TrEMBL record:
The keyword Flavoprotein does not apply. Keywords: Repeat, Signal. Gene3D superfamilies: Cholin Binding (2.10.270.10), Cysteine proteinases (3.90.70.10). It comes from the Bacteria. It comes from Collinsella aerofaciens. Residues 528-688 form the Peptidase C39-like domain. Residues 1-20 form the signal peptide. Cell wall-binding repeats lie at residues 131-150, 439-458. PROSITE patterns: CW. This is Peptidase C39-like domain-containing protein. SUPFAM superfamilies: Cell wall binding repeat (SSF69360). InterPro entries: Cell_wall/Cho-bd_repeat (IPR018337), Peptidase_C39-like (IPR039564).
Length: 715
């Protein structure tokens, strides 16, 4: 029973497709399903061993044939058995499994393809099922009505009309002449009769409401057209209607958009040529009203303004080159005239011709010079006619004139005289030799060095020459040497090197070693402070030994115990501020330490005894930048930190003095800050315990500030 259901399903699907119309299925090209003719029982094949003399009801021979009820195949044909005893083969119409079949009464064989009987034509598919709906056979379409009879003549289906030949029943396509009328049966629409515009063989036609093709003049959508009286083809070229409106018709009807007529381009709307401005395809075009709407090319004046149109008619914007002449079309397309600034560059376009200027031009009361690309020259010399040279100021106006000589540009005044010495013009300074030649490069004038650019202008500010940097005074232009401070940054211009800015490393200047970055900024300083060890004589004498190292930097040549033994005040009872509480030669017997006021007193005690004009100064509580500035000026600083160079232990003693709180901290230790390097983030110390050491600058200064910012200098 499984096969029976499959066969029945196939025929139902096939019948459904046949009813869908000519655009839905191609029966002739469908896959044959003759092996699946539906029946209530399975088909049985009949062996081909029958004798031709044997027959049943004039049907096929029956010798040795086992007939079964229903469908049987024999000798390439299908038969339907109504009974097997006796055997009776069906003829005429047969309805089974929801489908109609025709079994030829003369042969009892099942019919396929096109058949005519009882005055009507029918079509049966390869499985014998009678078709309904659209059928395709051998490249032709047919339509079988609900009863299966093939239609002929006009057929109305849905909203479409079709024509089926009365003799062949085949559906017609293309041009159809019926009586005095012609119709177009559209092949692209399944043969449906066309309404509206029709194109065939390069000609246009128009089918009215009844489908008949128009003849003569007719209005379509309010637009008049003209069709050939005999063929119905739409006429082309210019046509003027009864109202005097002139339209142009092309091979596709009234032109819309661009059309080439007699060598000129026009823009048509329903065949009428437009005039004036039109924008299409992202470009603007001018359709000249005086030329009947012909598209303009080249230079044209439109509504009082000049425009330029390329060969395709598109309005230009930006620079335009026409026959060796340059123009500039603004964003609106109008050609610029007069002064024009583009990205900081000035141009002059002649107000009468719109042509971009080159060479020397008189504009207003000034002369200007423009190079070959039209750029106005400024702050430079330019070649003029012959040997004449012209210098343009920052405004572009020519302010100097000269003659090119073998020695350079010889400056000439308006009276034709040679100019010498200092010349000032438009905010710039020049210097001419005795024969009037403008000097360039390095020049020594009256004992000072100056630099003149290639155009002769005196340079100021930073100057890079040959990879070296120099500083030229803003007001005078003289080259500077020595220290220079700009924006809070120090630079050094080395006179010994011709004023070159020092950079990229350490340089010894005076009594101090300075470090300069690649940009020339001073980023480090170092002074050569001696470094005595406090051991073994002064186990707790770091403060006095640091002062000794500081004094010896200034050339006093002290032994390391002199300050501790003779100049350092000593006390007890907790006074560590103005005296050393204990004895620096011992490791116990008091607080065993002191702070900045006591060291300041000790320093001044020694300096007075030595008859020196210097003095010790307590600079505690200073900012880090001021401490570094002292070192930059060659002044080392005694500062309080820890023995291990990082954060201290607890504050084990405190005392107020002169409005400040001073304390002794765990690890209390005095050192001399003798250098720093901002690029590496380090400081250099003379440390009486650890020797000459470096420390992390951030940690060192942070520890110093935590330990009450104690500091002493000699000045």
């Amino acid at each position: 029973m499984a096969r029976k259901k499959r066969i029945t399903l196939i025929l139902i699907i096939f019948s459904t497709l046949l009813l869908a119309g000519p655009g839905a299925v191609d029966i002739a090209n469908a896959e044959p399903i003759s092996s699946s003719i539906p029946t209530d029982i399975e088909r049985q094949s009949v062996p081909s061993t029958l004798s031709s003399s044997d027959s049943i009801d004039d049907g096929p021979a029956q010798e040795s044939v086992e007939w079964n009820l229903g469908w049987n195949s024999f000798d390439g044909n299908w038969f339907y058995v109504d009974s097997v005893n006796p055997v009776s083969l069906h003829s005429g119409w047969l309805y089974t499994s929801g489908t109609w079949y025709w079994l030829d009464p003369s042969t009892h064989a099942m019919a396929t393809g096109l058949h005519e009987f009882n005055g009507s034509a029918y079509w049966f598919n390869s499985s014998g099922a009678m078709a309904t709906g659209w059928v395709r056979d051998g490249g032709s379409w047919y339509y079988a009505g609900e009863g299966g009879a093939l239609a002929s003549g006009w057929l109305h289906l849905g909203s479409n009309w079709f024509w089926l030949d009365p003799e062949t029943h085949a559906m017609a396509t293309g041009m159809l002449g019926l009586g005095d009328n012609a119709f177009w049966l559209d092949p692209s629409n399944g043969g449906a009769m066309a309404l509206g515009w029709v194109r065939d063989g390069g000609s246009w036609y128009y089918a009215g409401e009844g489908g008949a093709l128009a003849r003569g003049p007719i209005s379509v959508g309010g637009v008049p057209y003209c069709f050939d009286i005999e063929t119905g083809a739409m006429l082309t070229g210019y046509q003027t209607d009864a109202q005097g409106v002139r339209r142009y018709f092309g091979s596709c009807g009234p032109l819309n958009g661009w059309g080439l007529v007699d060598g000129s381009w026009y823009w048509f709307a329903d065949g009428i040529a437009s005039t004036g401005w039109i924008r299409t395809g992202g470009s603007w075009y001018w359709l000249d009203p005086e030329a009947g709407g012909a598209m303009a090319t080249g230079l044209h004046v439109c509504n009082g303004a000049a425009y330029w149109f390329n060969a395709s008619g598109a309005m230009a914007t930006g620079w335009v080159l026409d026959g060796g002449t340059w123009y500039y079309a603004t964003g609106s397309g109008a050609l610029a005239s007069g002064w024009l600034n583009l990205n900081g560059t000035w141009y002059w376009l002649d107000p009468s011709t719109y042509v971009m200027a080159t060479g020397v031009q008189t504009i207003g009361s000034c002369e200007y010079i423009f190079n070959s690309s039209g750029k106005m020259m400024a702050n430079c010399w330019s070649n003029g006619d012959g040997s004449w040279m012209y210098h343009s100021s920052s405004s572009g106006a020519i302010d100097l004139k000269g003659i090119m000589t073998d020695s350079g540009i010889q400056l000439i005044d308006d009276g034709g005289n040679v100019r010498t010495g200092w010349i000032e013009s438009q905010g710039s300074r020049y210097y001419c030799s005795a024969n009037g030649v403008i000097l360039t490069g390095w020049q020594q004038i009256a004992g000072s060095w100056y630099y003149f650019n290639s155009d002769g202008r005196m340079a100021t500010g930073w100057l890079n020459d040959g990879g070296n940097w120099f500083w030229l005074d803003f007001s005078s232009g003289t080259m500077k040497t020595g220290w220079l401070s700009l924006g809070g940054t120090w630079y050094y211009l080395d006179a010994a090197r011709g004023g070159v800015m020092l950079s990229n490393g350490w340089y010894w200047i005076g009594s101090t070693d300075y470090k300069f970055s690649p940009s020339g900024a001073m980023v480090g300083a170092w002074v050569d402070v001696p470094c005595y060890s406090q051991y073994p004589e002064l186990p707790t004498g770091c403060e006095s030994v640091a002062l000794t190292n500081l004094l010896n930097y200034y050339g006093f040549g002290l032994g390391k115990t002199i300050v501790a033994d003779y100049y350092l005040p000593k006390g007890s009872n907790g006074n560590f501020v103005t005296a050393f509480d204990g004895n620096p030669r011992r490791s116990s017997g008091g607080l065993m330490g002191c702070v900045a006021p006591a060291i300041t007193i000790a320093g001044n005690n020694f300096l007075r005894a030595a008859g020196s004009g210097k003095q010790a100064k307590d600079v505690s509580f200073s900012s880090i930048s001021s401490i570094k500035n002292r070192l930059t000026c060659g002044q080392p600083v005694e500062m309080w930190n820890t023995e291990w160079g990082s954060w201290p232990g607890g504050r084990y003693a405190a005392r107020w003095y002169n409005g400040h709180s001073y304390g002794l901290w765990g690890g209390n230790h005095a050192v001399v800050l003798k250098g720093y390097d901002d690029e590496q983030g380090i400081v250099y110390l003379s440390d009486s315990i650890n020797g000459n050491v470096t420390r992390n600058a951030q940690v060192f200064f942070g520890t110093w500030q935590q330990m009450d910012s104690q500091a002493v200098v000699i000045e």
